Amino acid sequence: MRRPVRKGQGQQVNDTYDADAKIPIYEKIRRMVHDKLHESGSEGCTAGDLYKSLDIDARRIREALQSLSGRDAVTGEKCRCGCATIYKLREFVE
Fold this sequence. Notes:
By secondary structure, the protein is an alpha+beta fold. It is 39% helix and 19% strand.
């Protein structure tokens, strides 16, 4: 008889930096979002830009943005029309 898999288990991926290390999927997504924001530089990205470029579930991207905001790594500024938030890394904020 097979043992049931609990939620949250089995969601680990190999880290590209270390072949032996396993990192959770949410950590990998957070790194991908951070890298994409770093690529965008001082212009930043909206959430829609991140959804399109990363091709990941929108909920996971929002969780990653919330996690990065909680660590004070990302800031959010409203665009000129006020309908979208532009996310930038703190190192690019003037």
